[in-house]
Design brief:
The complex is a heterodimer of chains A (160) and B (206). By secondary structure, chain A is of the alpha/beta class. Chain A has a domain at 50-158: Nucleotidyltransferase, domain 5 (2-Layer Sandwich), CATH 3.30.420.270. Chain A has 4 helices and 7 strands; from the N terminus they run H-E-E-E-H-E-E-H-E-H-E. Chain A has helices at residues 20-34, 73-79, 96-107, 128-140, and strands at 50-51, 55-56, 63-69, 84-87, 90-92, 117-122, 145-152. In chain A, a hairpin with a 2-residue loop joins strand 4 and strand 5 (90-92). Chain B has one domain. In chain B, strand 2 and strand 3 form a beta hairpin. Helices cover 37% and strands 13% of the residues of chain B. With 206 residues, chain B is of the alpha/beta class. Chain B has a 5-stranded mixed sheet with strand order 4-3-2-5-6, with helices on one face. The chains are: A alpha/beta (160), B alpha/beta (206). At the A-B interface, helix 1, strand 1, strand 2, strand 6 and helix 4 of A face helix 1, strand 1, helix 3 and helix 4 of B.
Chain lengths: 160, 206
């Protein structure tokens, strides 16, 4: 009987951390692959509305983004609180949308120029007047494929 | 001079620290982007050459005012009933049997005063300049939902599968080529049964 409680080392053995780098590397690779670097910082408030019947936007290289919304706090002093259009890194007027699309389209490779989609990332609080103007501009430059970017969720929560 | 034993090992103790540093960097910079939304086609700017005459009964008008209220076919309607009404209109199939416009797959009421055939039916959406974007998206969502539900029903009947499901697989670039070829015809066929004719007139200015 005495045999069993004979050996008892004074200090507890340390946890083996040899596999810790492996675990960390695994996480690292996961985040490396899902990361997309933002190419422009958003200067407008951008709470997208919810919708259920959404389609995924595949192939990021075929998408042009237009942001619309109230300027964020730091820009409100200079640009006011009315919803504004943001193209790339600066605020723009409705009349500049057409030129922007043409410029961006020219930068894309030839075979993609006819299959571009314009993603409209519009704040829920924006008015349709501005959106209609943008749509009119898009029609003028023949950029007819649009995607109203939304969150996935109950559409009726938009109106409450 | 002969070397004794194995060469000394590189100390890898700080590897975990370096990996953690990188991990934290990517954790902070990651934004999981929300890139899904409602796909729509805008009408081309040049008007069609010939003047197409569309019967009034084949047009389903939806008006949104600046307070977000809906006027559907001259009737004040709650947003929650819009999908149902749009489906009833699209699926009506009012043309009498025997006529070339007869709709064999419609399950609607076959009211002669409503749309003749889903391929003729047009939904016309008008909004005020002061309509909130959120309301507009909700209405768009409901109308697209109405089309999707009807398309799903037909796709289930013909191919035993949801249309939205087939379309998502068709549009996914990771789907193998031969599967996409096969899906293309099916998707096209269901789309032809219920073509999405959603007209957006220019915004009313008043």
């Amino acid at each position: 009987m005495a045999k069993f409680n004979k050996k008892k080392s004074a200090d507890t053995p340390g946890v083996n951390t040899a596999s810790l780098p492996d675990i960390v590397f695994m996480l690292l690779f996961f985040f490396m692959t899902v990361t997309t670097m933002k190419d422009s910082s958003i200067m407008v408030e951008n709470t997208l509305p919810n919708a259920t019947e959404t389609k995924k936007l595949e192939k990021k290289d075929r998408v042009l983004y237009i942001y619309v919304g109230k300027p964020t706090k730091e820009f409100q002093k200079t640009y006011g609180t009315e919803p504004k259009i943001q193209l790339n890194d600066k605020f723009a007027d409705v009349s500049e949308v057409g030129d922007f699309i043409l410029q961006e389209r020219a930068k894309k490779p030839q075979e993609l120029q006819n299959v571009l989609t314009t993603a409209l990332k519009v704040d829920s609080d924006a008015n349709m007047g501005l959106i209609s103007d943008i749509k009119q501009e898009l029609r003028k430059v023949n950029a007819l494929k649009v995607n109203y970017t939304t969150f996935e969720g109950d559409a009726f929560s938009n109106i409450e | 001079m002969p070397r004794r034993g194995a060469p000394p090992e590189v100390n890898a103790g700080s590897m975990a620290d370096i990996a953690f540093l990188l991990l934290i960097f990517f954790l902070v910079t990651t934004t999981i982007e929300t890139d899904s939304g409602l796909d729509r086609m805008l009408p081309p700017i040049e008007p069609p050459d010939e003047n197409v005459v569309i019967k009034q009964k084949n047009i389903f008008t939806v008006n949104i005012n600046k307070n977000g209220q809906l006027l559907v076919e001259e009737e004040l309607t709650d947003l929650r009933n819009l999908r149902e009404k749009a489906m009833a209109f699209l699926d009506n199939g009012g043309a009498p049997s025997g006529s070339p416009e007869y709709c064999s797959y419609c399950k609607g009421k076959r009211n002669p005063d409503s749309s003749d055939n889903p391929t003729k039916a047009i939904i016309s959406l008008k909004n005020d300049r002061e309509t909130k974007y959120a309301t507009y998206i909700t209405v768009q969502n409901e109308l697209v939902g109405a089309y999707n539900e009807l398309r799903n029903r037909e796709a289930q009947r013909l191919f035993g599968r949801d249309f939205t499901d087939m379309e998502a697989e068709y549009l996914n670039p990771e789907t193998p080529e031969e599967v996409r070829e096969e899906l293309k015809d099916k998707v096209q066929r269901v789309q032809d049964l219920f073509p999405q004719k959603l007209s957006e007139a220019e915004t009313a200015t008043n």
